[in-house]
Amino acid sequence: MQLTLGPTDCDLPYWITSVAQGTLRDRGVTGHHADARVPDFLKEPGPLRDALILEFGFRGVSEEIATRLLAPYVELAPGIPEMEFYATQLLDEARHSRVFRNHLVELGMPADTLLRDVTELSADYRARVLEPVVDFTLEIVREQQDFAGGVAVFAIVIEGVLAPAAELSERKWTPLSPATGEISRGTAIDEIRHLTVASTILKDHLAAHPESRDRIVEIIQAGVKMWDEVPDREFVIHREELFQEGMAAHADKIGDYEIWPGVRMLDTTPEQRYDMAERWTEQMAEVRMAYMGLPPELLGGAGGSV
Hints:
Blueprint (H helix, E strand, L loop, with lengths): L11 H12 L23 H23 L1 H6 L3 H27 L7 H8 L1 H21 L3 H27 L4 H31 L4 H17 L2 H18 L1 H4 L3 E3 L2 E2 L5 H22 L15
Antiparallel strand pairs: 1-2
Helix pairs in contact: 2-4, 2-6, 2-10, 4-8, 6-7, 7-8, 7-9, 7-12, 10-12
């Protein structure tokens, strides 16, 4: 939450050396090292496998949509540093979508029908949760050609939800599947970088153009209201209930592992895990709003998970 990075820190050379040749070294194809295995029990039919298929299936579609949404950001970027940063973020999101999707093949889903199967699996989620986000974002960056407003959407609304959700995913799956945990950790690192740089872009924009403050506030509040209205909770709670059932069946593999300090994962409920991700989202948004010089109370209780 305290990390500070700007577009000149995370330009194209940075991405090539620190991401492609750094954090992705030996993980570029699958998102995890070759020696990080998917355990056999996750390849067998059951609630734990079903929970992971739903989680990574939905996240894969979310990242695909994020990739497509970022094209106007590259086009509208006011300078080369911003253009290079959003070009790398577009590539990051495309990679996330691919590794989430292909992890389903590692779980035993057939590769030749994967795209069709994921489309069918996520149809309701896409229509009810993701399409409102798409419409909201494209109205700002495509119709209104508002780069700063679009950055506000990604910095506070989209990435502000994705980063905490990615961290929860990493914490959940690490004791059960080394491969799944590595994938989640790698995507979480990227999401934090995206959120941090976007916050700096917006902070600098507000400092240079204080007259745009009211519009940025209006966009952020509208985005928070949109997230409050989409029915993401029912989808998340459903897969967390499956996870709960599968977790109980494999309690011996989890033991006293703590999902956050002082709390054993085996002692948590689906609602507690969802609420914790929501709390992290709120805390992240509040910190970033303060960093940008905007009153955190304008958020009115940002929340949600994916």
